[in-house]
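User: I'm curious whether this sequence folds into something compact or stays loose and floppy. Could you predict its structure so I can see for myself?
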Amino acid sequence: MKKAELEAACGRTIRDVIAPGLDVIFVGINPGRYSGATGFHFAGPGNRFWPALHASGFTDHRLKPSEVGLLPQFGCGITNLVARTTARADELTGDELRAGRRSLERKVRRYRPQWVAFVGLGAYRVAFGKPAATVGPQPDTIAGARVWVLPNTSGLNANHRPEDFAKQFGDLRRAVRPYTD
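Assistant: Here's the prediction. I'll summarize afterward.
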């Protein structure tokens, strides 16, 4: 993808892929430029979301970002805390993250998933006022849905290896579907 195409993607939004009664809705921080340019969630070439989703057992094969529309058949959906595309998540303000929380709460009330899984600890901490939150299950709920926090799968997050993501996503999958192992 050309640099100009990526730069032109800033400010764009991506359509949610959610349906009523899903097992889990994954919540990204916001679309990166590659995702904004393609229109697909977690589309950056270095993003580890799709490999982790498959390695953990949520899907029966590794989906491509362009196959995001298949997620509901696996009981999953995707949205973002903040809709606008940026080059980096740290370009977002605390006010934007907190406004995204209110928007997300409305979506969860409407679609009623069992779980909401945040893909990004820092954004969750700011949006929900939980500075001490850690990766894993949270004690709070959102409109009746249980909450889990995962590390940010962006290729810019060098703190985690693919195996770490597979384990974290696997822990969530076992909580979401405890009788499938």
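Summary: The two ends are 40 Å apart (CA to CA). Residues 46 and 157 are 10 Å apart (CA to CA).
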